[in-house]
């Protein structure tokens, strides 16, 4: 008796969860993301001009997160929920911002800009977390995404040498901005990314010998 009640409860729970887990980007995300978008429009000045020519920082390979990564994941991971990609975007860029700030001395001319950017990013993350039911964040990730997640959260001294990569702060923020436009399309209707074009780019790439 109690088993079947549990089962029924479980099934009911599943049915109730499905629409919840597929909730689209909430409109509440747009104001904080637009504020971030505004900050990012100054990235050339603060992330290029205030650094030595060709300056790069060391980041985890998985922190180089581009549009091509997104289209590849959409293609390879069946039934990939947009929310999972959005969570990954927050995880990646949290690490990116931290690493950029870490290389800047206290009096670096780009430091206030970067600190402000990070504050705005955290605000957006706070709204993101609040705009979704808590279950969303306990949901198991698809295996390939979980693997990336594990790499990103690995202790730095346990990351193998071959997993580090050098990238310029400006290029990291370029990726940050483009992938934001792609993953939060509801907030950036003029963004250049959509599923169709992303997927076809990838297919074109695969056809190359
Ligand atoms: C994002 O910022 C750019 C300036 O870099 C601006 O042209 C664009 O309108 C902004 N998008 C939104 C949705 O605010
Ligand atoms: C910067 O990188 C470019 C392209 O890799 C190279 O041609 C140029 O010489 C580099 N400049 C300096 C100052 O290292
Ligand atoms: C994105 O793709 C590049 C290869 O193009 C890879 O090195 C990097 O690890 C990928 N990033 C993620 C988050 O999967
Ligand atoms: C994707 O974007 C292209 C232009 O970049 C547009 O022609 C096409 O209609 C868009 N597709 C969807 C599904 O929005």
UniProtKB/TrEMBL annotation:
<dbReference type="GO" id="GO:0008284">
    <property type="term" value="P:positive regulation of cell population proliferation"/>
</dbReference>
<protein>
    <submittedName>
        <fullName>Interleukin 34</fullName>
    </submittedName>
</protein>
<dbReference type="GO" id="GO:0005157">
    <property type="term" value="F:macrophage colony-stimulating factor receptor binding"/>
</dbReference>
<dbReference type="GO" id="GO:1905517">
    <property type="term" value="P:macrophage migration"/>
</dbReference>
<dbReference type="GO" id="GO:0045657">
    <property type="term" value="P:positive regulation of monocyte differentiation"/>
</dbReference>
<dbReference type="GO" id="GO:0014005">
    <property type="term" value="P:microglia development"/>
</dbReference>
<dbReference type="InterPro" id="IPR038328">
    <property type="entry name" value="IL-34_sf"/>
</dbReference>
<feature type="signal peptide">
    <location>
        <begin position="1"/>
        <end position="27"/>
    </location>
</feature>
<dbReference type="InterPro" id="IPR020415">
    <property type="entry name" value="IL-34"/>
</dbReference>
<dbReference type="GO" id="GO:0045651">
    <property type="term" value="P:positive regulation of macrophage differentiation"/>
</dbReference>
<keyword id="KW-0732">Signal</keyword>
<dbReference type="Pfam" id="PF15036">
    <property type="entry name" value="IL34"/>
</dbReference>
<dbReference type="GO" id="GO:0005615">
    <property type="term" value="C:extracellular space"/>
</dbReference>
């Amino acid at each position: 008796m109690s088993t079947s009640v549990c089962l029924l409860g479980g099934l009911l729970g599943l049915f109730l969860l499905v629409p919840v887990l597929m909730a689209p980007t909430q409109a509440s995300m747009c104001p904080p993301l637009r504020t971030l978008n505004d900050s990012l429009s100054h990235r050339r000045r603060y992330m290029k001009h205030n650094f030595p020519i060709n300056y790069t920082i060391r980041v985890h390979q998985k922190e180089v997160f581009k549009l091509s990564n997104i289209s590849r994941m959409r293609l390879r991971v069946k039934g990939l929920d947009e929310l999972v990609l959005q969570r990954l975007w927050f995880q990646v860029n949290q690490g990116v911002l931290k690493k950029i700030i870490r290389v800047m001395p206290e009096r670096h001319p780009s430091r206030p800009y970067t600190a402000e950017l990070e504050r705005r990013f955290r605000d957006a993350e706070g709204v993101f977390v609040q705009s979704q039911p808590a279950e969303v964040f306990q949901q198991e990730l698809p295996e390939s995404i979980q693997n990336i997640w594990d790499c990103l959260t690995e202790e730095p001294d346990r990351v193998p040498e071959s997993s580090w990569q050098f990238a310029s702060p400006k290029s990291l923020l370029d990726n940050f901005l483009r992938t934001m436009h792609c993953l939060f399309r509801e907030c950036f209707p003029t963004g250049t990314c959509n599923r169709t074009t992303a997927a076809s780019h990838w297919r074109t790439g695969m056809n190359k010998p």
